[in-house]
Aldehyde dehydrogenase (Paenibacillus naphthalenovorans), 488 residues
Amino acid sequence: MSSLTEQKPAVYYNYVGGEWTESASRERLESRNPATGELVGYAQKSTETDILQSIDSVYEAYRTSDWGVNPKRRYEALLELARQIENNIEHLARLMTMEQGKPIRESRVELAGCVDTLKYFAGAARTVFGRSVQLEPGNFGVIAKEPIGVVGIISPWNWPALLMIRELAPALAAGNGVIVKPASLTPIISVELFKLIDQVPHFPKGIVSIVTGPGQSIGAVMGSSKKIDMISFTGDTSTGKTIMALAASNIKKLALELGGKSPNVVFEDAPLDKAIPLIGRSIFISAGQICMAGSRLLVHESVKEEVLFRLKQYTEKLSVGNGLLESTDMGPLVSQSQLDLVNEYCEIGRREGNIITGGYRLTGGAYDQGYFFAPTIIDDLSSDCRVVREEIFGPVLAVQSFSSDEEALALANDTDFGLSAGVWTSSLNRAMRMSRGIQAGTVWINTYNKNFPEAEFGGYKQSGLGRTRGVDGLMEYCETKHIHFEMD
Ligand code: NAD
């Protein structure tokens, strides 16, 4: 395997005030390949001093440049960044797979998503429309959309490029200055993308910055800084709650994209040939480390046996291994702690349910170097089991069955989360009833995991606050001002 990872470990710096800077701590974060344990590179282990400098520099660039009032400049900048990524996809995909572990094919898809998102928001930068309204005789109102100011983006490790760009693109399109704090497990791919930002001359110097380091210290400074007007956070629901509390310091605007426990609901009239591979993919993509994972399967009792038989066959054919191999379907988990967590949940599942396949760490040969876990299906679980209720963030599918549409809807909604759902049926009426009844930000009918920059995404209940993507996603990064004219 080592011939696949010949790249030398490099040192990655913060990008502050348009310059590459070293942390005041002079300490570094090690980034290691979760498939092999090899060192991928070093990033800065930044301190409070570093993040405060970064906040000051973005604040200053926002105040002194024309960025907030020059949509055409923003359009040019985002489009050029899209081109830069497009020209470097193979290099970036390789680096992302080495740092995060996901199959190279998934890395390419993720980066293509970054390009598409940047192109969409490049155009959207020129459409930050408000409204006007006649209010009473002689009184005319203009409802204007303006940038918020300085936005802090805190992003997770599971889709490190797209989830950063998904927020960076609309925040910049709306005219804000931005500071990014990427996850400590995946700082390198994030900084590598900033090297491309550095190549784009249309960005005013200092308008966008990245500082790597621990969430609990520098992320927390961002949450409480009075110079940051908004935090856009993607991550765990419990961290989201901490950030909400920090943001109270100056009543910061918040956009929260949090966890999920999403169901695929399979009725007796489901198109199973299409459903089986897509349901399998919905939970085993990124080794289940994806917020919208279809981690619960709710299946009508009359087709349960067939569905589980076919899903088991699908699962056992998956090739688990080093993501750099083109043949790999599922890579490792991202870290030892993630591996331990998934293992713990499987032990609970073993006690309270029936493991149909998987349920163990993969060992032997190259598996011993990384955090590989067998794709797992657990059946016969009750609604109060932790495997059904809690987000595992691993390749573990929890199965329950139902006997009526009402029961299916009740089970689908019996969760603290509400990020997404899949409904599988040939009946239009049933599809409509279920999609309106399920409390989730996205409901896919006879498909799953289809996302577009123009279609809003976000959570009901504890899966989040606000929407990302689409027109609403752009408006999240705007303030609204009423300008009132009274004529004599
Ligand atoms: P996490 O909450 O542990 O970390 C996310 C980010 O927050 C990281 O950059 C981390 O350094 C930072 N952070 C940690 N503690 C902090 C604090 N006290 N103050 C400020 N920042 C802090 O999440 P993770 O493990 O990186 O990601 C997995 C979670 O993200 C899962 O729950 C998943 O469902 C969720 N997620 C949601 C979406 C979505 O769009 N809804 C997308 C991807 C991931």
Residues 154-159, 163, 181-184, 215-216, 219-220, 223, 234-236, 239, 242-243, 257-260, 291, 391, 393, 419, 459, 464 surround nicotinamide-adenine-dinucleotide (CB under 6 Å). The chain has two domains: 2-258+463-483, 263-452. The first strand starts at residue 10 and ends at 11.
